[in-house]
Amino acid sequence: MAQSQIHLKILPSVRSFFDKMVRVKVEGLTPHKPVELRSKLVDDKGVIFKASALYKADESGQVDVFRTPSLGGSYTGVEPMGLFWALAPDAPHTKLMKKDVLSPTRVTLEALNGETGKVLASESNERGYMIEGMKRIPLQEGRIRGVLFIPPGNGPFPGIIDMYTFGGGLTEPRASLLASKGFVVLALAYLRYQDLPKNPKNLDLEYFEEAVTYLRKRPEVKGPGIGVISISHSGALALSMSSFLSGISATVCINTCNANTVLPLHYKDIVFPPLPPVMENVKFTDSGLVDIRDALPDPTKGKNRASLIPIERATCHFLFAASEDDHNWNSMFFASQAAEILKKHGKKSYEVVTYPKAGHFLDVPYMPYCSSGFHPAVGHVVVFGGEPKAHSEAQLDLWERVQEFFKTHLGNKST
Amino acid sequence: MASQVRLRLLPSARCLFDEPIQVKVAGLRSRQVVSLRASSTDDKGTVFSSAATYRADGNGEIDMKRDPSLSGSYVGVEPMGLLWSMTPNSLHKRLQKINALNPYMVKFSVHEEAGEGRILAEVTNERILMGDGVIRVPVKEGNIRGVLFTPPGRGPFPAVLDLYTFGGGLSEKRASLLASRGFLVLTVALYGHDDLPKNVKEIHLDYLEEAVEFLQKQTKGSSKKVGVISLSKSGDLALSVASYLADVEATVWINGCSANVALPLYYKKRRIHSALMFDLKKVIPSESGAFNTKYALNNPLAEENKGSLIPIERAKGHFLFVASEDDLNWDSKAYVDEMVERLKRHGMEKFESVLYPGAGHYLEPPYGPYCPSSFHGVLGKPVLWGGEPKSHAAAEVHMWKKIQDFLRNHLSSDAAQTRAKL
Asked: Which residues form the active site (chain B) (predicted)?
């Protein structure tokens, strides 16, 4: 069998960035014999994520995920990165947790004899988040809590504020990977992080104004304006920042609502109440999970208008990304309504991109798909929609668009 | 008409406690609305019951696997809803099933929805704790007071030490069910059982070491590896067993603490861990008369409590951490975070965690009644356990399979090792 000659290779290197492809090849196998490839990672909570696929070695005893089709398992067909995007958690209703980007995410790959189950070879792919020479600075300036990422090199660089979901805490991967493309990124926490309130009664835009002012003043940041990237709940915050604060040139909203949700938002003497949910529209799936897709009403109707963010006041460029199968809320509806409102006010500086069959958490490439999870605003496990392969392709496409969008509108084309 | 109504439990009215069944009704009128009910009396005489309203289909049939409950103890399609939604007839009672020899008898019945709810049909579900061929032997050797469950067949069987909660006495339910699934299980009491003292002021790890050695003797030398399964207070005992004793290959920690709670721990006559205590001032009362103790346990990471933290990085075996995200007894999820971080800091990788949103403190073998509150051994009062019935019940189903896979994976002898399922 010459088993000692079986190698599992990760190309070009076992060390890669989290958002980059790697090529997995197994060599030295018995030709035409079945081989199972397995991937596994353990997240920061200790939850195991796994994927596997059955292949057949070719006539030269090789399996090359770039060319060889999977015959079954977590995915089928030729899927160069299937072992990564198909990773699914052992514990139900779990999203991959990566607390900070100081360490890479290690994915262990194994090749097993398809008939006996014996492990033939294994290798680990270290998927990192920080580029060599990048600075990661935890921030506690005034009220601001978050982490600042500064790329290596002389700069100055365009600045971006990165905000995440209602769950609170701080999510660093996207901010760090974006910074490695040549941006100074402030991953901004606003809830349940360090000494920020655990259960605030409202949010105030002044906090975000402080963050915008701080970032624009950093010597490494070049103007004239900064960018903002948001997803889910933080979308309304991004839209409010763009509508009321100066110095924002480009705003990305991923699966967001064009009205304020969950917590009242204050700014000076204005109050945006949260859009009131319609409980009768909450459904249950066959498996007993909660489907809140239609729980939020049309923000332009009646009293709901008080929650609508007046984006016609904004002067920045907008990129709205919406998953057509988002079940957290009707992202498509809110994105098209936002575009309609801008159009009605004669604005031309917006784009809308939609992704059929993608779900709520459109994240960086190869972030494992999350189908359901505990929703802190609802107090129940909800379904998030989408299906793994389409979702993963959407993540790839969106990532390119986001980088292009910021490069174009924040003036970093020279890099 | 009534004699035509048939209530059936499939595949059989006799099954293991942790097995799902299909409840079907036939012989009703087309689209007749009825009440399906379940009730059971536990070993202490508390009556548990549930009821849900169903509408028969065009053929006068109901299939709980297919049809939704329209109202009652639960709604929606819930094949096992009548079991896990049962509530006791007095507050703050948890199902007491003291020994494994007697099955858990649940009476299912169909009633007319209107009027006095005349009974139309009934059947009794005999949910046994010991599978056919499982041997139960009380153990009274040396200091050990417990029960050994041996599965049928020739073995070798993966060996597990089952430690239960703080309350004292002996718990057999989980141990006998594990044995019914092919594990050799020793469940031991620490106090309040047989000739053991009624109460203790400290725990000696030597006792648990004796239990591990006894268990190893039962495997007749096929393997020295043992597993440990715990719940609540015994969680920290399981951590100590794994950290200080040899041959502990797989440890299941369920909603425990990362530090030694309530009772100081001794080993070879020396005190190795101080006791982390509750601060009664931080207990929050609730309307039902039960208390929320989630924030009442002192912080294990505080400097003055460092003596209670268990050095799990010393363990040579694997850990499975199971935590309910809505545990109100104490912050189980936070303890998992601490332990995961601690192991990672020491470069240890032999662990995995499973977290369940919406589940409460008492994660048990599935299909028992969800318990929102009951008497707390340390506090001496009823305590809220957290979670909500449906999510908690679903968590128990998932956890039960996960635990068995984990134990089998790490305890099976190499020759008997089968390919792990995906």
From this structure: 232, 327, 361
